[in-house]
């Protein structure tokens, strides 16, 4: 099934609005993340919910019996609504949109840090602290390793790229040398 981000965004916005109104936005986020963890064990839940060979009543019974009382009722109602509207295939995209809304409410900005080699948690925390100080925002860092940068760090914070990689420095040096006619 082709998943439509626009559909997922509408459901995420509606869920966020309802959760914010009740003061449970963060709890709902934790519950959505918990349901996503179930999917990591195996895609059988999503496959079951999307299956045309399973009656809708059975899908709804499964959702209510497995999740009701274990996750916030808004999460259960979201799943049931998406089942009834035949939009359950878009559910996997709701979490990232919803998470972005909650993080924005909390003043948290996503950032990606790319290094040439894996770095330890202490170094990552140090990078986070430095980036938070320079941006004035609380950050949620995601780390990725890309050996092609050769060394250094490339950080992307809120769409702004801070490139202090060796690859970038070498390219800048090359441009300087070409401009001064040292290299031809």
UniProtKB/TrEMBL annotation:
Molecular function per GO: proton-transporting ATP synthase activity, rotational mechanism
UniProt xrefs under InterPro entries: ATP_synth_OSCP/delta_N_sf, ATPase_OSCP/dsu
Gene3D superfamilies noted in UniProt: N-terminal domain of the delta subunit of the F1F0-ATP synthase
GO cellular component, one term: proton-transporting ATP synthase complex
Protein keywords: ATP synthesis, Cell membrane, CF(1), Hydrogen ion transport, Ion transport, Membrane, Transport
Membrane topology (UniProt): Peripheral membrane protein
Cellular localisation: Cell membrane; Membrane
Domain of life: Bacteria
Entries under NCBIfam families matching the protein: ATP_synt_delta
Protein family membership: Belongs to the ATPase delta chain family.
Function (record text): F(1)F(0) ATP synthase produces ATP from ADP in the presence of a proton or sodium gradient. F-type ATPases consist of two structural domains, F(1) containing the extramembraneous catalytic core and F(0) containing the membrane proton channel, linked together by a central stalk and a peripheral stalk. During catalysis, ATP synthesis in the catalytic domain of F(1) is coupled via a rotary mechanism of the central stalk subunits to proton translocation. This protein is part of the stalk that links CF(0) to CF(1). It either transmits conformational changes from CF(0) to CF(1) or is implicated in proton conduction.
Name this polypeptide is given: ATP synthase subunit delta
């Amino acid at each position: 099934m082709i998943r439509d981000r626009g559909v997922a965004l509408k459901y995420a916005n509606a869920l966020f609005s309802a959760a914010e109104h009740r003061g449970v936005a963060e709890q709902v986020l934790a519950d959505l993340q918990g349901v996503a963890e179930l999917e990591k064990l195996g895609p059988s839940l999503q496959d079951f919910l999307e299956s045309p060979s399973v009656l809708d009543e059975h899908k709804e019974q499964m959702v209510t019996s497995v999740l009701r009382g274990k996750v916030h009722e808004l999460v259960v109602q979201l799943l049931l609504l998406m089942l009834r509207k035949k939009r359950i295939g878009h559910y996997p995209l709701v979490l990232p949109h919803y998470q972005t809304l909650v993080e924005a409410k909390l003043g948290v900005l996503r950032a990606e840090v790319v290094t040439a080699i894996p770095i330890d948690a202490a170094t990552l925390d140090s990078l986070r602290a430095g980036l938070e100080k320079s941006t004035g925002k609380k950050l949620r860092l995601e780390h990725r390793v890309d050996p092609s940068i050769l060394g250094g760090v490339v950080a992307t914070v809120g769409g702004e790229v801070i490139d202090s990689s060796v690859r970038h420095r070498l390219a800048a040096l090359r441009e300087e040398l070409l401009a001064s006619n040292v290299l031809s």
